[in-house]
Amino acid sequence: MSSALSKELRGKHNTRSLPIRKDDEVRIVRGKYKGREGKVTQVYRKKWVIHVDRVQRDKSNGAAVPIGIHPSNVVITTIKLDKDRYVYGVSAFP
Predict the structure, then answer these.
(1) Helices marked H in the chain — which ranges?
(2) Using one digit for the tens of pLDDT, what is the confidence trace for 50-92?
(3) Is the distance from CB of 33 to CB of 51 less than 8 angstroms?
(4) Handedness of CA 33, 34, 37, 40 (dihedral sign)
(5) Is 2-84 CATH 3.40.50.720?
(6) How many Cα atoms are found within 13 Å in the side-chain-facing hemisphere of 49?
(7) Model pTM greater than 0.85?
(8) Most buried of 28, 44, 76, 86 (most Cβ within 10 A)?
(9) How many angstroms separate the CA atoms of 3 and 62, rounded?
(10) Which residues are registered as beta bridge partners of 28?
């Protein structure tokens, strides 16, 4: 499940998209929640959606439920780099 990179990250890493993962920061660019930014709290691979911090709906009993966003509708603005993430030349240790 990949998402597009922001223009700044595109120039820095010489790639247009990367697999999305938990703790990446994204901006929603399509749909009802367009313009919101937040951190990815969960990548739900079975349903092909991601859950973003502060994008949720209240149920009738008052509980908050995260809204699933398709990864093609977001742009990655900050990549979480650690020793485990080496994808397409993007590494925490250049």
Answers:
(1) 7-13
(2) 999 999 999 999 999 999 999 999 999 999 988 777 666 666 6
(3) no
(4) positive
(5) no
(6) 8
(7) yes
(8) 76
(9) 32
(10) 74
In a 3-state reduction of DSSP, which class is residue 82?
Answer: coil
Domain ranges of the chain: 2-84
CA atoms within 13 A on the CB side of 83: 0
DSSP 53: E
For residue 38, the surrounding DSSP H or E stretch is strand 37-44
Q: Distance between CA atoms of 10 and 76, rounded to whole angstroms?
A: 10
Q: How far is CA 81 from the centre of its chain?
A: 14
Distance separating alpha carbons of residues 61 and 86, to the nearest angstrom: 43
Q: How far apart (Å, rounded) are the C-alpha atoms in residues 2 and 9?
A: 14
Strands 86-87 and 90-91, how do they pair? Answer: antiparallel
Q: Which residues contact 63 (CB under 8 A, 6 or more apart)?
A: none
- CA distances to 11, 39, 59, 68, 90 from 76, rounded to whole Å, are 13, 10, 29, 16, 14
